[in-house]
Amino acid sequence: MTDELKPGEVLAIVAASGPRRWMGVGAMGALGAILIYFAFTTAPAFGWQLFLIVIGAGALVLADATRRATENVIQLTPEGLQLSTGEVIATLDQIELVRRGMFDMKPSNGFALKLKKARTRRWQPGLWWAIGRRVGIGGVTPGSHSKTMAQMLEALLAQNAAK
Predict the structure, then answer these.
(1) Alpha carbons 159 and 163: distance in angstroms, whole number
(2) What is the pTM of this model?
(3) pLDDT tens-place string over residues 99-132
(4) What is the Rg, in whole angstroms, of the alpha carbon atoms belonging to the chain?
């Protein structure tokens, strides 16, 4: 990395690949459809039928939320992490630690951040989430994108700490 990074310059991206994206959306949608189908074809007791319909509808809503969320791209800039829509996930000065170990609580194929201060809760299924001081990046994204972004983020944090 050079010492002269331009503000707003995109250093790395994490984006859901087409096949991973549609596999995740398709699996969740299929689960919802199967649950609703079983609710109407097997005729269980009314309580169970209602339960299957509610859970099936929830799965369909989650499939659509995943589809919409994975249209976005996470970008690493010298200022921090942001979505392609412009929404800021975390600025560089808010990030305390990057966690990407095997036993860390993080998304599949991703990494987690520990922030200095808690941020508002946010969840974009398959892409990223934030709860309190923890932010998870990843899900239906390729591990190579996440690994590259995590390494560059660690380098930027080390560079800022050295200043």
Answers:
(1) 7
(2) 0.82
(3) 887 777 788 888 999 999 999 999 999 899 999 9
(4) 19
Specify whether the CB–CB gap between 111 and 146 falls below 8 A.
yes
Q: How confident is the model at residue 18 (pLDDT cuts 50, 70, 90)?
A: confident
DSSP per residue, 95-145: EEEEE--TTSS--TT-EEEEEEEEEEEEEETTTEEEEEEEEEE-SSS-HHH
Question: In the sheet where 95-99 sits, what is the strand order?
Answer: 95-99, 111-124, 128-137
Q: Where do we find the tokens 């969840």? A: 123
Listed in sequence order, the residues at least 6 apart from 145 whose beta carbon sits closer than 8 Å to its beta carbon are 12, 13, 14, 15
Look at residue 103 in the predicted model and tell me its pLDDT: 74
**Cβ neighbours around 80 below 10 Å, total:** 18
Judge whether 69 and 124 are in contact, CB under 8 Å: yes
